[in-house]
Amino acid sequence: MLAILSPSKTMHEVKVQVRTSTPRFQDDAELLAATMRKFDPTGLMNIMGISDELAEINYARYQGFLKAHSYPAAYLYKGDVYRGLAIDDLDSDAVKHLNRHVRILSGLYGYLKPLDRIKPYRLEMSTKVITEYGHDLYSFWDDKLARNLENESEDGILLNIASKEYSKAVTRKDLKLRVIDVEFREKKGDSARIIPLFSKIARGMLARYIAVERINSLENIRSFNYGGYSFEEGLSASDKLVFVR
Question: What digits encode the pLDDT tens for the residues 233-245?
Answer without folding.
Answer: 999 999 999 999 9
